[in-house]
Amino acid sequence: MGTSERSRARHGTLDTYGEVIGLTGPLLPCVSFLGRLPTATIQFGSVLLVARTSGSLAAAGLTGGALALGQVTCGPLVGRLADRHGQRTVVLAFSLANALAVAALVTGALAGLPTPLLALLGAAAGATVPLVGPLARARLVALARACGAPESTVGAALGFESTLDELSFVLGPALVGLAAVLAHPAYALGGAALMVATCGTGFALHPTARAVRPAPARARTGTATADPMPRSVHALRAALALQGAMFGACQAGITALTARLGQEDQAGLVYAAMGVMSAVAGLAMAAVPARLGLPARWRLATGAAFALSLPLLRTDGLTGLYAVVTVLGTAYAPHLITVFGLTERTVPRSRLGGGDGVRDERRGRRPGPRGRGHRPSGRVLRPRGRVRGGEHGRRARLRHRPDGPPDDVHGTAGRHPPRACVRRGAGGPVAAPVDTPRARVRVGWVRDGRVPRGPLSGGRAEGARRAAGAPSGCGPEG
C-alpha cells in the first residue's frame, strides 16, 4: 500500500469516527466514559480495600466475588428495566443507589465489619451497577440507525464504545493501584461513588436518552408477543461468557503472581498495560476492510486470544508478565467488538437494551401511535447545504414521498429526491434522515434555524446539491 493510499485510509477512519462523535456531540462520550469508570474501579478496588483493612485475602476474595455475582445476576434486569421504562429513569435510580452502596462498602470495610456483612455490601454494590457502558452502546446504535447511517458507521460506533470500555478498565485498576501506593484504596472507591452519582446522573439526563424509547404499554402488559430470540444468540452469549472468564482469570492470576513476587502494587499497572493495547487494537478495527466479514473476524480474534494466552502458563517474572499481557491485549477488544456487531445484527431491535425506540431501518418507522418516524435527540445528519427557516428547537423530520414503494422510505425509487424539512415543536436538535443517490450526508448542529458553516457550505454546498438532483433547501413544514 502506497503512502497516498495509507493517508486516504487513515483519513477515512478519522472521518468515520468523526461521524460517530457527531451523532451525540462530544459531551456524551465524556460523560458516559466517566460514568462507566467506577464499574472498573470497584471490582478491583473492593479486593484491595478489604485485603488492606482486614488483612485477609480470603475475606477480600469473598467480597469481590459477591460484588461480581451481584452484577452478573442483576445486570440483565437493569437492561430489561431500561427496555420497559426508558434509560433515563433506570440509569438515574441505579446511579444514585450504586453510589450509596459503594459508600456503604467503604464505610463497612474501614469500620472492620465481619466478612459476611462485607460480602452482603459487596453484593449490593454489584447489583446496583447502572451499566452505563451497554446502555451507551445501545443508545449510540439507536441514533445511528435512526439517522440512516451506513453499516461502516454502525460498526465504528460499536468499536468506539468498546474502546471506551477498554479505556475504563485501563484507568480503573491503575487509579486503584495508584491510590493503594500513595495512600489507601478507600480513596479510589470514594471517588468512584462520587463519580457514579454525578456522571451517571449526567448520562441519564442527557437529551439523547430519548433516542431509546420505552416499550409500548401493550408490550409491557403482555398483550403483544415479544420478538423471539434467535438460537444463534446462545453461541454469542457463550463466547462473551468465556471471554469474561478469561478476563477474570487474568486479573486473578496477575494479582496472585505480583503478590508472590512481593510487588502487589504492580497488579493494577500490569492490568492497565493489557488494557492500553486492547484499546489501541479496538480503535484500529475501523480500518479493517469490509470484505473481511464478521464471522471471519470472530474466528481470527478467538484464535488469537487462545494462542496469545498460552505463554501465560510459563510466565513467572514481572518483566515477562508485562510483555505477555500487553500482547494478549490485542485480542480482547477485536473479539468484543466483533461479537457486539454480530449481536446487533442477530438480536431483535426491541431486545437490544434500546427497546422499541430504535427505528426499524427497513421500514423507516418505529412501533407506536400512527407509526410516526422515530425522532431521536442529538446531532443532525444533513445534506451538504443549508437548512432554512425555523427557530431554535424546531424538529427536523423526514417528509415521506407518496410516489415511492412502501419500503422506499427515502423516496429514491420515485421521481423526486427526499427533503429534510424543519418543523415547529419543542425539544432540541434531532436526527433528520436524508439520503440521495449521490449526495453524502454531513453532521452538524441546527442552531437558530441554521446549520453552522463548514467545509461544504454556501455556494459549494448548493453546487453539490444541484449536481445530486437535491433541492436547494426547504422551509418550515406546515
UniProtKB/TrEMBL annotation:
<keyword id="KW-0812">Transmembrane</keyword>
<feature type="transmembrane region" description="Helical">
    <location>
        <begin position="319"/>
        <end position="342"/>
    </location>
</feature>
<feature type="region of interest" description="Disordered">
    <location>
        <begin position="348"/>
        <end position="434"/>
    </location>
</feature>
<feature type="transmembrane region" description="Helical">
    <location>
        <begin position="117"/>
        <end position="136"/>
    </location>
</feature>
<dbReference type="InterPro" id="IPR036259">
    <property type="entry name" value="MFS_trans_sf"/>
</dbReference>
<feature type="transmembrane region" description="Helical">
    <location>
        <begin position="90"/>
        <end position="111"/>
    </location>
</feature>
<feature type="transmembrane region" description="Helical">
    <location>
        <begin position="238"/>
        <end position="257"/>
    </location>
</feature>
<dbReference type="InterPro" id="IPR011701">
    <property type="entry name" value="MFS"/>
</dbReference>
<feature type="compositionally biased region" description="Basic and acidic residues">
    <location>
        <begin position="401"/>
        <end position="410"/>
    </location>
</feature>
<dbReference type="Pfam" id="PF07690">
    <property type="entry name" value="MFS_1"/>
</dbReference>
<dbReference type="GO" id="GO:0022857">
    <property type="term" value="F:transmembrane transporter activity"/>
</dbReference>
<keyword id="KW-1133">Transmembrane helix</keyword>
<protein>
    <submittedName>
        <fullName>MFS family permease</fullName>
    </submittedName>
</protein>
<feature type="compositionally biased region" description="Basic residues">
    <location>
        <begin position="364"/>
        <end position="387"/>
    </location>
</feature>
<feature type="transmembrane region" description="Helical">
    <location>
        <begin position="269"/>
        <end position="289"/>
    </location>
</feature>
<keyword id="KW-0472">Membrane</keyword>
<feature type="region of interest" description="Disordered">
    <location>
        <begin position="450"/>
        <end position="478"/>
    </location>
</feature>
